[in-house]
Amino acid sequence: MPKVSEFIKYHGKPVREVYLDHENSGWVPPEVVEAMLPYFNQKGYGHPSITNLPGWEAYEVVESTLEEVSKTINARGGELILTHSGTEANNLAIIGGALARGKERNKIITSAIEHVSVLFPARSLEEHGYRVVTVPVDKEGFVDPDLLSMLIDHETLMVSIQMVNHEIGTIQDIKTLVETVKDKNDKIIFHTDAVDAYGRMKIDVEELGVDLLTLSSHKIHGPKGIGILYAREDVKLKPVMHGALSTQRMWPGVENTPALAGFKKAVELAFSNFDYNIEKMKKLRDRLMHGILENVPDVLLNGPMGEKRAPDNLNVSFLYVEGESITVELSLRGIYVSSGSACTSRVLEPSHVILAIGRKHEEAHGSILFKVSRYQTEEDIEYVLSQIPPAIEKLRIMSPLARESRIALKKTVEA
Ligand SMILES: Cc1ncc(COP(=O)(O)O)c(C=O)c1O
Question: Of all atoms in ligand 1, which is nearest to the CA of residue 217?
Fold first, then answer.
């Protein structure tokens, strides 16, 4: 990796920048930063577990943030466990949920397109005698309740299926999936990773009937470093982290109070004008989607169209080009996106999500994930649409894959 300062010295800074990588992390609005600042050195800088004024102030931030979040998902404050990331919350759900039940039942079912922070902890349990079974998804990423039902047996202890897929935006019908599972055996724990659903659709834990649900701050314009696990009052978990003082029954270590104050503000902002924000994201995303599909040849849409797709998500495969070269070319034009699964993009492996919906390796390699935000404008999207066709054209001219496919096409036409 070159030094960023050297990169900028060589290429200059783009004149216009549009950040469309909100899947991986995001921009934090000034109101959120302002809410955080006092907690570094003016108040609440103490330890929330300690009885002195700065400690009480810190404790108040922890409690009021959990209270604010609980209202948005119809939970009680005491049902939320604070962690330091969505990854940690998913680990607690899967490992803590399984270990709390001993080994009478040992089967964990996940979908083929879960985030790695669900898949990897589940796999880690295999070393301890648990079995992980994967329910496949259809070509748009949906889990079929009948298929899920067929996998459930007397050994099943937990099912984990995410609410919205982080790459292709598929919105699962969690209520039906929970009913399917609980009809078979209501002792089976149902966990849903709602990191990509939060702030983009209504979530009501009572209505859904889930036992465990994960959230993360930086996916809703909050600061990094805050995750939350909703665990229904009667759901048992075994601690998976052990150690220092905390107000949290399941997660040791001092709470990140400035980040919590910021997260609280981010929640307030995301949930005021909620319907307007969703409509805005949808409109921007639809313009981007149709603009690309209509103006760039050889593009495949990954994931569903319409109401069953998250309002901020767009994922397309540009055939005959490498995703990584697209992210670099667009970055030089001030457009920031990611390729395949960003969590694995440094290892250049095709995304397991795109492969699971039936795409070929080369189609998965050319997949690009765009995520719009309510802070963006129509002008931002028009700028992106003005840059994508020439960027793809340029890469295809240089691409051996595109050359081979043109030769193959020519041969077919001539034959
Ligand atoms: C669906 C999903 N679950 C979990 C996570 C992990 O959250 P965090 O980045 O807070 O660890 C992510 C992160 O991108 C995600 O997209």
Answer: 10
